[in-house]
Amino acid sequence: MPIRMRVRGPWGVETIQAEDDWTLEQLVKTIQEKCRVSEFSLKSGYPPSELDLRAKQTPIKDLKLNGETLTLVPAARELEDAPVPEAKRAKTVPEAPAFQPKGVEADETTVEWPEQGGYLVLRVMPDDNSCMFTAFGGVMQISDPAARLRREIGEHILNNPDKYSKAILENLDPKVYVERLQDPQRWGGSIELMCLSEIYNIQICSIDVKYARVDTYGEGKDTRCILLYSGIHYDRIAQSFELGLPVDSDVTQWGTENDDVIKKAKELAAQLKRQDYYTDTHDMVIRCNVPGCEHWIGSGEKDMVKHTKETGHAAFEEMKLSD
Question: Which domain holds residue 300?
Fold first, then answer.
């Protein structure tokens, strides 16, 4: 019976079809040929663990790899030297420039995680009022997630009127709240995170940079993801086995019994706080940028929320108060 698996590496994803009488050695040779890389390690399972490639004569049927996605981690020198596999060359497009955190050096966006053989890293989202949806969409590997997640959240709210009543929805009628949510300028927050946890059956942990607080949505779930909240912006926290690997090889989900990942994520948040990677909403004045409004609405998060409730506007800019 054929055994099919996917191998995800820095240069894309390859599908491997093996026979159940293959040994691990045969599988490794096939991966070397198809992915054009000679030295590498393989990780499988959930949470990912490294396969012992020295056990060459192990029957692969004993490893239960059918349907699995294996993560290929090349040896360091191979990251620079290995060619793009032939099957991927025609599809290769120039990559967009990496979005860099404001005021944070690149080496301040990672923490080593030697117990897991890699790093916990910050994946910074564009500052476009849909950062929360983009951050979570990457967890679930959803392309262009903002519009889709806004729509799904809206449907979820309307389908659960007992839970998502006017009292929960910032004193707004559910239909009005859902209508405003579809505006690409409107931010997502705790209500949307609660909905996404229920829709996708995953625990979402949001770590506040300034206060080191962990807000958890979805108690009792089996898996979790982690977002980082820096005052008015969300980013994604991910695990990478090598810093040179592409974003699509990230691990973004962990078992909820894994408290080590929360500890490491809080270390990363503390590191970012030292770099002032947060916005203090109590120490800024806010301007509404919606055409026709365009006036200063006050200072602090309360005034911002009040203005949004009254007008539905959610396009703001901040101006730091002088010391």
Answer: 285-318
Question: Average pLDDT of the chain?
Answer: 80
Residue 218 inside a domain? The answer is yes
| Burial (CB count within 10 angstroms: exposed 0-12, middle 13-18, buried 19+), residue 104 | middle
Please give the torsion angle defined by the CA atoms of residues 307, 194, 46 and 143, in that order, rounded to the nearest 10 degrees.
-50
CA 15 to chain centre: 24
In one-letter notation, the amino acid at residue 223 is T
154, part of any domain: yes
The number of folded domains in the chain is 3
CA torsion through residues 161, 164, 169, 171, sign? positive
| Residue 163: CATH number of its domain | 3.90.70.80
| C-alpha angle 285-286-290 in degrees, rounded to nearest 5 | 165
| H or E element that contains 156 | helix 145-159
Neighbours of 312 (CB within 10 A): 16
The predicted model scores a pTM of 0.64
The verdict on 48 and 175 lying in the same domain is no
Residue 38 and residue 78 in contact, taking contact as beta carbons nearer than 8 Å: yes
Judgement on whether residues 29 and 175 belong to the same structural domain of the protein: no
* Residues labelled as active-site residues: 128, 131, 233, 313
Confidence of residue 133 (pLDDT cuts 50, 70, 90): very high
